[in-house]
Amino acid sequence: MRRLNYCVILTGLLAALLPRGASALDNADCFTCHDDKTLTKKGADGKVTGLFVDPAKYGASVHATNACTSCHGDITEAPHPKDFAAKTVSCAACHEKAVHSYTASIHGVARQAGKLGAAVCADCHSQHDIQSPGAPTSPLRREQQGATCGKCHQQIMVEVRNSIHGKAMAHGAPDAPTCTDCHADHQISGLKTVSPLKVAEDVCSRCHASERFNARYNLPVNRVTTFFSSYHGMAAKFGSTRSANCASCHGYHNVLPSTDPRSSVNKANMVKTCQKCHPAANENFAFGTIHLDENSAADIGSRISGWVRRVYLLLIVGVIGSMLVHNALVMIRKILLARRRRELTVVRMTLTQRLQHLLLLLSFIALALTGFALKYPDGWIAYLLGASENVRRLGHRAAAVVMLALAVYHTGYLLLTREGRTLLREISPRLKDVFDVFANLRYLLSPRAPQPAFARFGYAEKAEYWAVVWGTVIMGLTGLVIWFKMTSTQWVPRWVIEVAITVHYYEALLAVLAIIVWHFYHVFFDPDVYPNNTAWWDGRVSADLYREEHPLDHETLAAAGLEPHDQTVAPEDGSKTPADDAPD
Q1: Tens-place pLDDT, residues 108-142
Q2: What DSSP element (H or E) covers 40?
């Protein structure tokens, strides 16, 4: 303490002699006192705190270029006033993101709950001799992390050192996991209370799902995939908080190879391990294969399951395939018989229109399949296509070119041909279509309401046609922006590409669902045309059906040599017609 008194006197004289404005403290002022190894301070609780700072270590730290007052901003004069107590240093001024992460960690939450023994920044990084994590003597270097965390977690440190992970680290394995590999850096989390999915997917899978890692250490390549296909893994994926995860069987810190008698997955300990969750477990239960692989011949269960799988695949292909062939023959026969029974005399679609429809049908199906395969490369559609991503992308673009070329041709057809101009005139929306919507709703909901009369195209057919036009324009524009993104970004910012991708996907989803729900009903499931409306193939429909659904299309009926329907369409006001009073 005598050295401290001399420092106080000397610093006071210097402060008195210096002119005003030149009294800012520098590191030399601080080390005048704090380089004394015996310098201490007793707190109000009687605890003695060392105040020594090694200038050499501080000069070699990552903060060597910082002034002491960069961290101790509340210290503005030396010597310090009597009974002065420095404030706790906050690292957030320079390391805001790291401190924010720490606050949400298990240590930060504990500090906020009043547990002052929980680790703070200095407990892991040191105080005045902070080094970069890669420095040889850094407490955060991979080899030293166990000892650093072991200052508070001594028993866990012993378990880790004796585990397969700790021994790998001791032997210099570059991939051996450290504490922060499993628990994260600043937002350190306790894994015993998190969901099973987080442990399996975010922790263990980081190494054990790696092909490079498994090949380097001669480990099984399927441990992660077989876990997620097991009961435990599927339960975890669907949100179960009670299902077993990797650590439930293999342990958290004391992970040992199955050949080690102390391992929880050693044959001598398997029953006890399973009984933690399944109290009635016995040897027959415990010695079953958890990581079951039907393609493996490692055990009798896997071999038998593999053969059962092959037999059932053959059975499924044979039985279901036979059913499909049988029902396809039945449907074809019924379609042919229905065509013979019906008087197909009304021309609904010309050859040119049918060819355009066929190209639209094929390109749309190709776009849908390849598009969803590109969006979901791990999905069943991509699996069925059985091609590489490049093939799917080229197929998608080829189908897009066909659809865009068809759109250009159809536009010319509508504007430059007599047949097309007639189609455009008849399919264009009119005010009557609005009234037809409400009239048809009354007809569908009330048994006494009259059936509205339509010309060649009703409001439903017009809405579907113009929805195709709208969808083609939207899909075409967004698709071209995505396809030629490098050119597009010469004119628009990158976020436009991202928005185009979103629009392209959801417009495609809307179009596919509309085709399935709306168009397929009218083509296949409408009782008047079931099992198939063949107008898309030969262009013709039943005379009776056409007269019933399109009684106002006098031109088409006359061209087919038909008179208007003999059943007068009831007026929309619900009044009687002469047909209502006619005798039965």
Answers
A1: 999 999 898 899 999 999 989 999 988 988 999 98
A2: strand 40-42
